[in-house]
Amino acid sequence: MTHKFDVLGIGNAIVDVLVNVEDNFLTRNDIPKGSMQLVDEETSEKLYAKLGAAIECSGGSAANTIAGLASLGSKTAYMGKIKDDQLGAVFDHDISSLGITFPTAKDQSGVSTARCLVMVSPDAERTMCTYLGACVNLTEQDIDPEIVASSAVTYMEGYLWDPEQAKAAFRKAMSLAHNAGRKTSLSLSDSFCVGRHKQEFLQLAEHEIDILFANEDELLMLYDTQDMSVALKAVQQHCEVAAITRGAKGCTIVSANDIIDIGGCKVDNLVDTTGAGDLFAAGFLHGYSRNLDLGTCGQMGNLVASEVITHMGARPDVNLKQFLVDNL
Amino acid sequence: MTHKFDVLGIGNAIVDVLVNVEDNFLTRNDIPKGSMQLVDEETSEKLYAKLGAAIECSGGSAANTIAGLASLGSKTAYMGKIKDDQLGAVFDHDISSLGITFPTAKDQSGVSTARCLVMVSPDAERTMCTYLGACVNLTEQDIDPEIVASSAVTYMEGYLWDPEQAKAAFRKAMSLAHNAGRKTSLSLSDSFCVGRHKQEFLQLAEHEIDILFANEDELLMLYDTQDMSVALKAVQQHCEVAAITRGAKGCTIVSANDIIDIGGCKVDNLVDTTGAGDLFAAGFLHGYSRNLDLGTCGQMGNLVASEVITHMGARPDVNLKQFLVDNL
Fold first, then answer.
1. Rounded to whole angstroms, what are the CA distances from B230 to B202, B227, B246?
2. CATH number attached to the domain at B5-327
3. β partners of residue A52
């Protein structure tokens, strides 16, 4: 079955505001290190006012993954809601400049394009406060059936479960994909997000999702266990493939017959871990869509993730196609 | 005579859009490498659409210098015109977060906050296309006499000669500073800018400016010579102090009795030369405002410039006060 797009991504379309902080800034402001929390516009503005000079760049978990895939040479599309404002123009430009098909209509009025304050600690760990803005206006109407049906994989982020209407959009896309005989993929996003939506995510994993992405914390949270071997066996019963990232240790790839560990890449200059999981998914799915064996897919995920953590921001800094040629 | 501010900066308030390009992109688009050219909004948009994914951060030559001075611990103020839009909010935040007094009223309507497309070549050289936007609305009315009179040095960029009304603002500030017995300082900005305004810049250097900043090309262009020793002797007759940057070779400091060369700092990881001259001025003026000898001021300029060229963007990535302690 031919397809037009290797991967379609659907997610919260967000511009990141990146700023270095000391850990005691997080403590003083009662923000759990490593978390992603949702904040309203006023809280976002107040926190921003306390933060130092920042840089802005496009973000959004699934959007980062799709940007990585496009840079690797995959054929990609993306759906996510922005407003027609200056930050929306930045997001739109960065997606479109990579040749990604981006059909979602922009809001002409209402709340502004989403912003995520990404606070990077000296140890490169990132802590995020997200104002969802226009993301709350992504609805079923934004899911273009033709694009879903012509995408080999539809990849969605767990964060889509946060804006109320986006769940329906997620379910519609999932259903369209399966009806067209395509694969569905979910990233669990973060353990706090899994905590908020555990029952629904469990049902998705059990019945709807073919390829699951998670880190260890998220998988343990999903299966309510402290034992990774229990969680790995559980997800093996649920999903066709699960790719579990383990930070510097690499990843574990779970399929019907196998659970294999793949060691991580050595990184000398760790700067900002933002986007590590997103870019792992990009590398993995790029291999997957080329029918490479799952071990190679995992290696490609590790490698692509190792690039994004050497600089500020969650989008690749180099042409990943060339990077892969030079490093794999 | 006591002062409230060590340095007041006045300049074009700009948000930078930073993007990596190959040199042949510049050739194809007829853009001289290393230049700063002014473009209208339509041309800016068309060029942006051709460029790859970018990062946004606050820029503006004098604003970069003032940000550097604030990070070094100087007492600073800045005047420049932005619109009350999202990119204006980014600029405002980044200035204010450093504790810089920023009294300029924002435009509530009209053209948007200025943007500079900064195209960074593989050799770290930057080429700029600037859409002046709201900068054209900086007028004499924006020059707060009390702030000028209470600033030990008023530092202005040559680029202010591009928006028509800003010249009058520049002249007003210069006159207010001298009437209060303060020092005036000018950065020649770039050689193309000197080419546009040579006669007026010569008059400024001869009659109005106490401390001149330039690189070698700009100084040669100003004095219409290919011989640096001729240019250095000419500027020695005109300005109390001239600080001439020479790229990797360091700088030459000219005063009434001396012309001294100060070797540059070794930089292993050159990434983006944007802001090198601006941050040199920050380091130099920080020393100058503390009455350090001119040789030390030059060393501080070299050192601070060496930090900003190791990463993308024209604002310091680290606390410069600490950086100076660790490296001087």
1. 15, 5, 16
2. 3.40.1190.20
3. none
* Chain-chain contact of B93 with A313 (C-beta, under 8 angstroms): no
**What pLDDT is attached to residue B269?**
86
Q: Are B14 and B130 in contact (CB under 8 A)?
A: yes
Instruction: Kindly state the average pLDDT of the residues B35-60.
Output: 96
Q: Is the pLDDT of residue B197 over 80?
A: yes
ipTM above 0.95, yes or no: no
**Size of chain B in residues:** 328
* Coil/strand/helix, residue B261: strand
What tokens does B255 get? 């005063």
Q: What are phi and psi of A31, to 5 degrees?
A: -110, 115
pLDDT in tens, B253-296: 999 999 999 999 999 889 889 999 999 999 999 999 999 999 99
Please state, in angstroms and rounded to a whole number, the distance separating the CA atoms of residues B272 and B292: 29
Write out the two tokens for B305: 């410039």
Of B56, B87, B112, the CB nearest to A55: B56
3-class secondary structure, B19: strand
A53 closest CB neighbour out of B53, B58, B85: B58
Taking 70 as the pLDDT cut, the residues of chain A under it are none
Per-residue DSSP letter, A83:
B
Angle (CA) A136-A137-A143 rounded to 5° is: 115
| B86 interaction partners in chain A (CB closer than 8 Å) | 85-87, 112
B56 CB neighbour count, 10 Å cutoff = 25
Its sign, for the CA torsion B58, B61, B66, B68, is positive
CA–CA dist A290, A293 (Å, integer): 9
Q: How far apart are CA B81 and CA B166, in angstroms?
A: 10
Give how far A174 is from chain B: nearest CA, Å. Answer: 29
User: How far away is chain A from the Cα of B97, in angstroms, using its nearest Cα?
Assistant: 5
Looking at residue B80, what is its pLDDT?
Answer: 98
- Predicted confidence (pLDDT) at residue B230 exceeds the cutoff of 90: yes
Give the separation between CA A239 and CA B155, rounded to whole angstroms: 63
Kindly list the residues from chain A whose CB atom is less than 8 angstroms away from the CB atom of residue B56. Answer: 55-57, 90
Dig out the tokens for A26 from the structure.
Answer: 């997080």
- pLDDT for the residue B268: 87
In angstroms, the CA A179 to CA A185 distance is 15
In the predicted model, what is the mean pLDDT of residues B297-321? 93
pLDDT of amino acid A305: 96
Buried b (16+ CB within 10 A) or exposed e, B215-231: bbebbbbbbeeeeeeeb
Distances (CA, A) of B4 to A42, A77, B72, B76, B281: 33, 55, 16, 8, 20
The percentage of residues in chain B with a pLDDT greater than 70, rounded to a whole number, is 100
pLDDT in tens, B235-244: 999 999 999 9
Q: How far apart are CA A88 and CA A85, in angstroms?
A: 5
SS3 call for B327: helix
The per-residue pLDDT for A1 is: 72
**pLDDT-derived band at B328, boundaries 50, 70, 90:** confident
CB A172 within 8 A of CB A143: yes
Domain boundaries, chain A: 5-327
Average pLDDT value over all residues in chain B: 96
Q: Which residues contact B124 (CB under 8 A, 6 or more apart)?
A: B270, B271, B272, B273, B309
